[in-house]
Design a protein that fits this description.
- The chain is an alpha+beta fold and 293 residues long.
- It contains 11 helices and 13 strands.
- The protein has a 13-stranded mixed sheet with strand order 1-2-3-4-5-13-6-12-11-10-9-8-7, sandwiched between helices.
- α1 runs antiparallel to α2 and α8 crosses α9.
- The two termini are 26 Å apart.
């Protein structure tokens, strides 16, 4: 088995492979598409591509046949040798593939400090067709960068100028939804993450009558034919009012307009989030695991 670096010559071939499995690895597709380093294709002796991994501190992976490969001693042995000197702080990917990597790390004496399990959800074909058939009733508002949704609230697309206003929501979101118990929040890192998202992703906020953001949502990875939604958060005083659903629905319409399909994941046990996403037309299509080391 060979681990082939993904350089510019290998990039198109790698993306073609990932495109077949993109709903499970949008972040990896974006990473490769933007020329991210430390990425490798995993090839068998017969030169068949078995997977793709990025081995930066946050490991991103796509190993479509992980269930069968976990019993392949040669594959697991080669992967173990390859990973033995890699400094990985987080494994991020489709559930079976992530658990295969976790098993190999366990053999290397590394135990995860915390594991988050999610339901991977994809916009259904029926929901997609419904959106595509809609009259574009928000055209005028979209041109102005905002959409009035009632007398008190409006949806606004955010940019780097909105970083100060969004920072409290971002801090709360990361503390409640992202940061595992084994990590300590660093506001400077949170601010850096927020600014990166505002510069590179499509970010929406719901503003109250005073122009203060009370909810937010954004893309957190854009691939070839898929875009992943994340960063969905509503301030406690404004929950159970449909704020998050309104933002996600608007974001989905933007994604569909870009000729992509929306995917997202909901933490296992968060029944309210899964119910809201189901109502918007998302269906569970698999599992997703994030393991912290």
């Amino acid at each position: 088995m060979r681990f082939i670096p993904v350089d510019e010559k290998k990039k198109a071939e790698t993306l073609a492979f990932l495109a077949k499995h993109e709903s499970t690895c949008v972040s990896l597709v974006e990473h490769i598409r933007l020329g991210g380093g430390d990425s490798f294709t995993i090839e068998s002796g017969a030169r068949e591509t078995l997977g793709v991994i990025s081995v930066k501190s946050r490991m991103l992976l796509c190993i479509p046949n992980a269930r069968s490969l976990q019993n392949d001693k040669a594959f697991c042995s080669s992967l173990k040798v390859f990973l033995s000197d890699k400094k990985i702080s987080c494994v991020n990917g489709e559930a079976e593939a992530s658990h295969l990597i976790m098993k190999i790390f366990a053999e290397l004496g590394r135990t995860p400090l915390h594991i988050n399990e999610y339901a991977l959800m994809t916009l259904s074909e029926a929901a997609l067709k419904k959106i595509q058939a809609k009259d574009n009733r928000h055209t005028a508002a979209a041109g102005a960068g905002e959409k009035a949704c009632c007398e008190k609230f409006k949806i606004v697309r955010c940019g780097i100028k909105d970083a100060d206003a969004l920072m409290p929501l971002q801090l709360a979101y990361e503390a409640e939804e992202v940061l595992p118990p084994c990590r300590t929040q660093n506001p400077a890192v949170t601010r850096k993450n927020l600014e990166r998202i505002l510069k590179t992703e499509y970010v929406l906020a719901l503003q109250n009558s005073r122009g203060e953001p009370v909810a937010k949502a954004n893309t957190n990875a854009v691939g070839i034919r898929r875009a992943q939604i994340g960063g969905v958060y509503t301030a406690p005083d404004f929950r159970r009012k449909g704020c998050a659903s309104l933002l996600v629905e608007t974001l989905v319409e933007k994604i569909v307009a870009s000729n992509r399909l929306a995917v997202l994941y909901a933490r296992n046990g968060n029944e309210s989030a899964e119910k809201a996403y189901t109502a918007l037309g998302f269906t569970k299509t698999g599992g997703f695991t994030i393991a912290y080391y």
